């Protein structure tokens, strides 16, 4: 069993020295680590009066860390497993909610400033028979000809 201190209704200030401002907090006790999920967190937010149609971003803070470096996304089963991994030593964990958008770069987004270049390439069709060269699998490709199905 564990408890959550849920910070909600606010937003994060800028890094460094990040804080959660203009919000409030609520405690949820007697949670079963084996049954906890993101869907259960969704239900908690409904009970706290939030509209289920709003986009909500969930984060948890690693115990003994600060909001600059300790925030972790809490949006998938894998994220829940990370949160639950702290339960044996920490019975009270902190969760932070952002509404509509997130300003924290740990949550399903590129950190920005991408160097990706998208360019159109001629379509190549791989041949069925691979050749082996120095224990490396090499697939031969050839251009697609017009009229092939």
From TrEMBL:
Residues 2-98 form the PB1-like domain. InterPro entries: PB1-like_dom_pln. It holds the Pfam family PB1-like. This is PB1-like domain-containing protein. It comes from Lactuca saligna.
């Amino acid at each position: 069993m564990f408890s959550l201190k849920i910070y909600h209704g606010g937003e994060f200030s800028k890094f460094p020295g990040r804080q959660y401002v203009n919000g409030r907090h609520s405690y949820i006790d007697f949670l079963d680590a084996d049954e906890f999920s993101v869907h259960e967190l969704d239900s908690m937010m409904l009970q706290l009066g939030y509209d289920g149609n709003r986009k909500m971003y969930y984060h948890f803070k690693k115990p003994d860390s600060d909001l600059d470096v300790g925030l972790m996304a809490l949006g998938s089963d894998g994220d829940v497993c990370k949160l639950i991994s702290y339960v044996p030593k920490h019975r009270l964990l902190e969760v932070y909610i952002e509404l509509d958008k997130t300003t924290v770069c740990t949550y399903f987004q590129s950190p920005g400033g991408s160097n990706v270049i998208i360019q159109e390439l001629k379509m190549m069709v791989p041949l069925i028979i691979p050749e082996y060269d120095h224990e490396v699998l090499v697939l031969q490709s050839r251009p697609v000809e017009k009229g092939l199905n």
